[in-house]
Amino acid sequence: MGSITIEEISTNLTAFDIYKLFYMEEYSFILDSSMSPNRLGRYSFIGFGPFMVVESKNGGIIIREGGKIIKTMTGNPLIVLKEILRRFVIKNDTGIPFVGGAVGFLAYDLCHHLEKLPRKADDDINLPDMIFGFYNNIVAVDHAKNTKYIMSLDLPETDRANRLEKLKLIKMRINSGNVEDTTYLDEPYRYNRVNPVSNFTYDTYCETIRKAREYIRCGDIYQMNLTQRFKTLINRHPLNIYTYLRKINPAPFAGYMNYGNMQILSSSPERFLKITKGMVETRPIKGTMPRGVGNTDEANYNTLKNSIKDRAENLMIVDLMRNDIGRVCKFGSVKVPELFEIERYATVFQMVSTVTGELRDDCNAVDCIMATFPGGSITGAPKIRSMEIIDELEPTCRHIYTGSIGYIGFDGDMDLNIVIRTILVKGHNAYYQVGGGIVWDSVPEREYKETMVKGLALKKALLYDDFTE
Hints:
Distance between the termini: 54 Å
CATH class: Alpha Beta
Shape: globular
Largest sheet: 12 strands, antiparallel
Oligomer: single chain
Number of helices: 11
Number of domains: 1
Helix content: 25-40%
């Protein structure tokens, strides 16, 4: 079993300032709870330079150590992830929820390892369907107490000298407080601003909603999540785009991940799975209403709160998630402590419910992922048939969108988001995707408009518009 060294650091740097000291480093990340401190957004975590990386694409798996490939294989990458995590175990009694472990992403398309599904959608971006780095040095920021910590893990089978060298680098840069102005990074991206272009036209999106409603009429499904993807050239460095995004659309499950040839810029409001000392929590979002001005804002809040349609959609997904986590939780432990709660974000109101359960003794975090991924709020019900129809109706693979990013700790705890309100950058191209739940009484034109509302902050961040309608 590994040991933890924890040190509180004195600095006036914010969590994002600290990340900017390391943004250029290999596999750097910030899991960024940039909302006002509350039960969802208390901690941010920063890391770089993992001692091991596992990456997967279509069943081909690569494991790297020190930047070198040490093993290749084929199979289910989640099983490989589970086996690696078994090698590194710690006891965490620090009171900080994450002190080290696996940080990365699960793409939506990883679903093909969990269910037998068609592959009709075009894999046009060709990205990995999973990357996790294993980190033994982590910086944590407690936003509630305004305290910062460096955690370092002494683990078996790892290079102690390399860990200590990186720990020294972390302390040196934080102590210097030398956060550079990153605007100079924009020079290679000086394109004219180009409005993002969808992989649907307005008419084809509305027609596709009608096709989904026909599946509902025939009894195949009760609800499905239909999405459209937008693409544009970026005119600033991804880090500077994220700087603006987190300002105009703060969210409890935000984050920035740098993988060299691609970056993930997330401002997600939705938790997929959290495990704390064996307790499982999922918080599906289903139900959206735009923010308004003055009295309109409160009217929109009340409209969503009392919407029979949105409550019905939300309840379908709550039932689905109760069933999913029930596969790995102790009998009788699954509860719904919160139902139809309304949360306020910069551009929208969201209807959120909470489902909890107690993890079985013979199950762990990866078992929980395998029982529930991808989240029900972004697939539909019944889940498998909905995913089959998604593959048929959406022209391109979802990739990272509606997958998850977050951490799986060496102590067995986990926190993953649902990748919505997120920009993917590859080279000089940026992609974002938006959608909504389709039910029998969905009106295509209204559903299309809802997707535009959900994408508003993402579009503004990419075009660097001021925050106006």
